[in-house]
Amino acid sequence: MSTNLTNLHFDSKIIPRVEVLTLNIDSIIKEYAAKKDTFPKVFSRMPLVLDISTLPSNLLELEPVIKDAVSQLVSGLRALEFIPIRIIGCSELIANECGLNAAEQVTAEDNVQINAKSTVSEHLPSTKYITGSVRGGVTIYDPDYDDLIILGDVKHGSEVAANGNVFILGKLAGRAHAGHKQQDSVIFAMNFDPEVAGINGLYLVNENIKVENINKPTLLKIEDDSSISVTSY
Fold first, then answer.
1. What is the pLDDT along the chain (233 residues), one digit of tens a residue?
2. Which of 31, 88, 181, 199 has its CA 20 to 30 Å from the CA of residue 111?
3. Per the database record, which ranges form the Septum formation inhibitor MinC C-terminal domain (predicted)?
4. Are 146 and 104 contained in the same domain?
5. Is 88 part of any domain?
6. What's 206's DSSP letter?
7. What pTM was computed for the model?
8. Domain CATH for 158
């Protein structure tokens, strides 16, 4: 039976948090390499908060071991083009030596959101990140960006659109439109139950979605230039 190496938490109001459950750093790096290989547009340049507070207390007391492990983890994630910016559960000295900020916890009020946005925009100006859910009645579209990543839900009655790909790391219950300027664009949602989903002028409405695709991680892309293929995982 496999054992989790980490838990990756997507909260609708804060950036993703990686809960580290082991000091097997090589295996963690392989796990995140696989995530990026599967969905490169979603995970490339994604800001992360690392959380080692759930490690056994006897390990956390071994400061040289923790320092070495955190350094390896940060270096490995950065090599994969993730952006670790904060860490929970270690000393400020270790955090600073690894180029991170230390934190007791991360909340919606924490300015980590601001740091994450500025870091991402510096490295990947073609992707717009929204940290939080999109409420009903709200429309998100920025013509200056290619891709759109929502770190939250797209609520019923709301609409999100992008020139390129749309990635929703929460529930898609509203409307999503991809491919305004790029025909090979995709839509991905961690929980798929949209009112309407469209790519480059082709549309899929809720009543035409198969039951087996509802409320599952789902990828939409154009097939043969004439229809939208729907793949759930």
1. 456 788 877 654 456 789 999 999 999 999 999 988 877 767 777 788 899 998 988 888 898 999 999 999 999 999 998 888 889 998 888 988 888 877 765 544 443 343 444 333 343 347 888 888 999 999 999 888 888 989 889 999 999 999 999 999 899 999 999 998 787 899 999 999 999 999 988 999 999 999 999 999 999 999 887 889 999 98
2. 31
3. 130-226
4. no
5. yes
6. G
7. 0.59
8. 2.160.20.70
